[in-house]
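Supplementary notes for students who missed Thursday's class. We covered one full example, reproduced here. Read the sequence, then the structure, then the short commentary at the end.
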Amino acid sequence: MEEMPISMTAILVTVVATFVFGFIWYTLLFGKAWATEMKFDMTVKPPASAMIKGLAFMLVGNFFMAFVFASNNAAWSFVPGIDKMGMVESIANAAGFTWLGFFLPGDLSRVAWEQHSWKLFAINTSYHLLNLVIAAIILMNL
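Structure (token representation):
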């Protein structure tokens, strides 16, 4: 049985990069719009313990996403002809299909069942797609 080539260095770099991207996306770029759509009171500052817990959960979640995404990409490397794809096509394929199959359905369900707005859907689902693109770029190049 062949061993799948998975780089722990690439996974750790992906964790940090996606963590920073999430901070930028949900604070600087779309923080106010996201908080408004989530109906958060922006005048209330959460306790430090809640922030630390949230950041820790995000780091753990980013690790799981990066590890599973790296494993999935490595498994696809055994498909005949996949090596004929260029780097851009490989990144688009990995990120696009993962987003389409695993993130988009959940984001759509939140609109249908949790009554999230389409604006919140757009903020969250575009974050998921771009986060996967960033992860794919790192994982396929380190």
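Commentary. The longest helix spans residues 48-76. Residues 48 and 54 are 10 Å apart (CA to CA). If anything here is unclear, bring it to office hours.
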